[in-house]
Every structure is written in structure tokens, then in C-alpha cells.
Amino acid sequence: MKKLITLSVLTLVFSLGYAQKRNVITAYNYGIKQGNTRYADAKKAIDEAINHVDTKEDEKAWYYRGIIYQKIAESDKAEHMKLHESPWEEAVLSYKNSIKFQDKSGRFAKDAITQLNYIRVTCFNDGIKLFEEKDYINAAKKFTLSSEIGNLPEINFNEDVVYYNTALSYERANNLEAAKIQYKLSAENNYEPVGCIRRIADITLKEGDTAAYVTILQDGIAQIADNQILMLLLIDHYSNANQLDIALDYLNKVIEIDPTNKVYHYAKGTFYDKKDNVEGAFEAYNKAIELDPEYFDAIFNMGALFFNKGADLNNQANDIPPQEVDAYNAMREKALEEFIKSTEYFERALEINPTDMYCMKQLKQIYFQLRGKPGYSEKIKEMDELIHKAEETEN
């Protein structure tokens, strides 16, 4: 009796194992064999097979499952679309397991690698289409799956832009934490590292963490050789915070990298201006003008420097007691000398930009201070006419 029971158990185990192998064949016939699209039946059969002890580590079963789920993913029929919410992911999982459980011949594993590479490219291209359609969250999912496949040792290839695209998609979808992770991956893979660090920093600043914003930029500067943009962001940050000494430190570093950039020298002049360092501002503006003799902003600000100096001397003259006529006249003459220097720059600025109303009015004001000297009364009239014509043109 015991022998009969043992024999019946063995027969049952054998029949169950055989049934699972038949499920693999059934899945093939329903969902893979040319012309057959009974994907629901194929899915049911193959899912049973990969969950059974006899076929859960079968290379062919997992490969067939990958094919079936891939076909489900590629189908545009409503009945197939509702079979699984993430068929691409299931196909990838199946192909990975086919590789994992490959036999010595590796026949199905080789085909699985080919299919994975196909899915990698397909998902990347689908991600681009979804992004263009502004379906950002699904675009991010497609790009993510593409990069995950590319990171497999059997594939070991990704499009350079994949992490950046993923990050941008997550950012547009307002999933900022995921975006920061992907921007970091893009930077680590040397795709737009400066741009990626900038995006991470910008997102962090929008989240209200100013200290982390500064740290991210400083770390980026330490890691990346071509870091002018990151330095400029810090310069802007410290300038807005009125921490001009720190801003100047970074600006001097940028000037060392690009000494012929007129804008950097002009910016340096504005910082010295704010610090009331007239000598430093003069030197910086003068350097900017040397680099570009037609640089309106630098020429205008140079004129303003001399005008302000003249105004200060004028104020000092007005503070001198009335009885000290000689001292007053000497101080007043020094003021007029500065005003004359100022006119030279403002007149140059107006030649460069003949329609600049502020420049015209500034010159009229200076000419008024100089009205006691020969020729300046006529210049006031000429400037009045220019201002009148300019106002008529504006109206």
C-alpha cells in the first residue's frame, strides 16, 4: 500500500510539473505564435508557469513572458491595455530573469538582451514624444526605465541626455526631489554638469533653503573646472545680500579665468561704487572701456563718478563760512573741474546712444553747474532742444 501511495504522489508531482511546461507552450501558442493575439490567455498561462517551482527558474519561460508583456505594451487595443498597468516594466523584469536563469547555451538570454536594448531605445523615444505632449510624469517614467535598462551590465549603454531628460520631466511634473536626483546623475555622468548643478541649486533656492543653495554652488565650483556660471550665480547671490566683499572675491576669480570680459570689469566697478571706493570703481570702469571703447554703461558710470565727486566738492564749498571767500572759490573750482571731466564721459555716452534721455538730462544738469564758464549757456540751450525733440519722438 505504501508503495502505491508513493507512486501516486510522484505521479502527481510529475503531472503538475508537466502541466507547467505545457503552460509555457500554451503561452507561446496564444501570444507569441504568428497571428495569435490571445494575450489574456497567454498572460494567464505564463504567469502560472513562472510561479511554479518547476518553471520559476526556466530561462525560456521568462523569455516568453517578456515577449508576451512586450506585445501587450505595444498593443493599442483597449482589451489589451487593461491587462496590466505596467507591461513594459514586466517585460523588462522577465527578460532580466531570463538572463539570470540562462542555461549553458544561453540561447534565450541572448535574445532577451536584444529585446532589452530594443525596449531601452523605444522607451527613450516614447519619453521624448510624451514630453513634447507635456505628459511629463509618464515621460519621466519612460526615461527612467530606459536608463535602468542601459545600466544593466549586459547592456552598459545609455543616451548621454537620458538623465537630464528624466530630471527635466520630473521638474516639469513638479516632482522636485526626483528631479534633483536625476540632475545629480546627469552631472555625475558628465552631461551638462554645470547646468545640472545650477538646476539643483535653483530648485533648492525655490524651496527656501538659501544655505543649501550656496553649498551646492560652492561644491560644484570645487568639482568642475569650467565653473564661471556657478561663480556668477554666487556673485549675484552675495550682491543681492549686500555681501559685497564676498561677491568681489568670486568676481576676481572669474576675471582671472576671463580677463578680457568687459562685463566682469564693469560689474566690479559697480561693486566698488556701492562700497564708495571711487578709486577701485574708476580702475574697473576704465578697464572695461579699454576693452570696449564704445561700452555705453561703463562710460556712463564713469561720468557719474566724476559728477558725484563734483557734487561732493560742491557740498563742501557750500559748507564753508560766507566770510571765507577764497576757500569757497577754491573748493568750487575743484568741483567744476570734476564736472568738466564728467561732461567728457556723458557726451561720449550720448554719441554712442543719441536717444538716451537720462544722459541728456544729466548733461543739462552738469552744464547748468558750468553755466558761468564760456560756451556752457549755449550747450544748455542745445540740450534743451535735444530733450524736446526726443520727448516729441516718444509721444
CATH class of the domain at 284-395: Mainly Alpha
State the helical fraction.
Answer: over 70%
Average predicted local confidence, pLDDT:
93
Number of helices: 19
Low-confidence blocks of residues: 1-18
Euclidean distance between termini CA atoms: 114 Å
- Strand content range: under 5%
What is the element string, with H for helices and E for strands? Answer: HHHHHHHHHHHHHHHHHHH
* Major beta sheet summary: none
CATH superfamily of the domain at 284-395: Tetratricopeptide repeat domain
Task: Give a count of the beta strands, DSSP E runs of length 2 or more.
Answer: 0
Q: Which shape, going by the Cα principal axes?
A: rod-shaped
> What is the CATH fold-level name of the domain at 284-395?
Serine Threonine Protein Phosphatase 5, Tetratricopeptide repeat
- The secondary structure category is mainly alpha
Describe the protein in words.
- By secondary structure, the protein is mainly α.
- It has a domain at 284-395: Tetratricopeptide repeat domain (Serine Threonine Protein Phosphatase 5, Tetratricopeptide repeat).
- 78% of the residues lie in helices and 0% in strands.
- It has 19 helices and no strands.
- The protein has helices spanning 2-31, 39-50, 59-74, 78-81, 87-100, 107-132, 136-150, 162-172, 176-188, 193-206, 210-223, 228-240, 244-257, 262-274, 278-291, 296-319, 325-352, 357-369, 376-394.
